[in-house]
């Protein structure tokens, strides 16, 4: 079974940036579409960005122009560069395949607050 470990979250002021990483335990993820999801308190988990094995990306309207997804298949790692962060981006961020066929990791908390 693939294990996913997210990292890079933290507390940041509005307008700031963070780069999240998702390391997968197996190279099998390199053949999957991978995505970043987030779940704000009291809300459902939502897909915000995805990337195909070849690098084609899809970004949700809510973060388009501010967030960028990328991947390094040689490292079994997916990244989420988040710029111009807003308080409404506060959430726990997860990665998974799209659709989410793997067990969920612990996620990484992102808090945007002054």
Structure, briefly:
The protein has strands spanning 4-7, 10-12, 18-24, 34-39, 46-51, 57-59, 67-72, 77-82, 91-97, 108-112. The chain is mainly β and 114 residues long.
Instruction: Record the strand order, biggest sheet.
Output: 2-10-9-4-5-6
Q: List the quaternary state of the chains.
A: single chain
Q: Give me the Rg, rounded.
A: 13 Å
State the helicity in percent bands.
Answer: under 10%
| Structural class determined from secondary elements | mainly beta
Number of strands: 10
Please, how many helices?
0
**What is the typical, i.e. mean, pLDDT?**
96
User: What ranges have pLDDT less than 50 throughout 5 or more consecutive residues?
Assistant: none
Order of helices and strands: EEEEEEEEEE
For the termini, the CA-CA separation is 40 Å
User: What fraction strand?
Assistant: over 45%
SSE topology sketch:
Elements: E1 4-7, E2 10-12, E3 18-24, E4 34-39, E5 46-51, E6 57-59, E7 67-72, E8 77-82, E9 91-97, E10 108-112
Parallel strand pairs: 2-10
Antiparallel strand pairs: 1-3, 3-8, 4-5, 4-9, 5-6, 7-8, 9-10
Structure description:
With 114 residues, the protein is mainly beta. The chain has strands at residues 4-7, 10-12, 18-24, 34-39, 46-51, 57-59, 67-72, 77-82, 91-97, 108-112. A six-stranded mixed sheet has the order 2-10-9-4-5-6, with no helix packed on it. Strands 1-3-8-7 form a four-stranded antiparallel sheet, with no helix packed on it. The mean pLDDT is 96.
What distinguishing features does this structure have?
114 residues; mainly beta; 10 strands; 4-stranded antiparallel sheet
């Amino acid at each position: 079974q693939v294990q996913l470990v997210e990292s890079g979250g933290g507390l940041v002021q509005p307008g700031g940036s963070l780069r999240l990483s998702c390391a997968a335990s197996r190279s099998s993820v390199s053949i999957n579409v991978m995505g970043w999801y987030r779940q704000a308190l009291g809300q459902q988990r939502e897909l915000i960005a995805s990337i195909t094995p070849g690098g084609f990306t899809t970004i949700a309207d809510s973060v388009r122009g501010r967030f960028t997804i990328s991947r390094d298949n040689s490292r079994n790692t997916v990244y989420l560069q988040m710029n111009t962060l807003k308080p409404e981006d506060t959430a726990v961020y997860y990665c998974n395949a799209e659709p989410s066929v793997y067990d969920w990791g612990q996620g990484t908390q992102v808090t945007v607050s002054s």
